[in-house]
Amino acid sequence: MNLLCFDSESAWINGAAAFWRDRLRAKPNLRLCLTSGNTPNGIYEAMVRSVASGQASFRDAEVFALDDYGGLAPDDRGRCVNMLRRYLVDHIDLPKERFHSIDTEAPDLEKVCADYDALIGDGFDLTLLGIGLNGHLGLNEPGSAPDSLTRRVEMHQSTITASANYLDHGRLPTWGVGVGLKHLLGSKEVWLLANGPKKAEIIRRVVRGEIGPDVPATLARRHANASLFLDPAAAAAL
Ligand code: PGA
Hints:
Elements: E1 2-5, H1 9-26, E2 31-34, H2 41-52, E3 62-65, E4 67-69, H3 80-87, E5 99-100, H4 109-120, E6 126-129, E7 151-154, H5 157-163, E8 175-178, H6 181-185, E9 189-194, H7 200-208, E10 226-230
Parallel strand pairs: 1-10, 2-3, 2-6, 3-5, 6-9, 9-10
Antiparallel strand pairs: 4-8, 7-8
Bound molecules: 2-phosphoglycolic acid (PGA).
């Protein structure tokens, strides 16, 4: 896994955005799997500026939302699809039909999951992931099998607690549906993104700890083209 330690949070944002622009130039029909949450928003805003200034285009790209919570209203601002729309998708030139998200309110969730995996098909070119405080990747909580597919997941308590960061009410989700590790680790390129002091301890475990499903993010160390993007605060315990 490439370790990319930046000098400041703004260098971390600009560095990730510059690499992302390069990937889009090299392959305009890039197939992307994108996380939501607090981590990527500055990078997404930088990509919005890149599109506005003509330095990048998503015209031929395809974007898959990584996951979403269950039990929240469709317009809840904390839903992953709505965060992705608010920070990125609504402000770029991605054709609407090439933005895919997971309908967690559908009556037949097994079909939703199977359809999403079928749509992912041969997989992603580039996957952007945050890292949970317990080392999860998306909704792949500790213990998730490396070959897991898109599925309903009961969230761990720290993940439930963290969801409050995105909500303007206290009705915290307890489950969600997320792309499984098979497609995340099968992505041609994987970026793990972390910023801020709260991530320093889990980053130490991801980089120095034993590789295994107890800390799903460690599995990225076996990937041939994975990079960990860190700002100084997230890298502080290395
Ligand atoms: P965060 O969440 O980006 O809001 O810190 C990361 C995650 O749980 O994957």
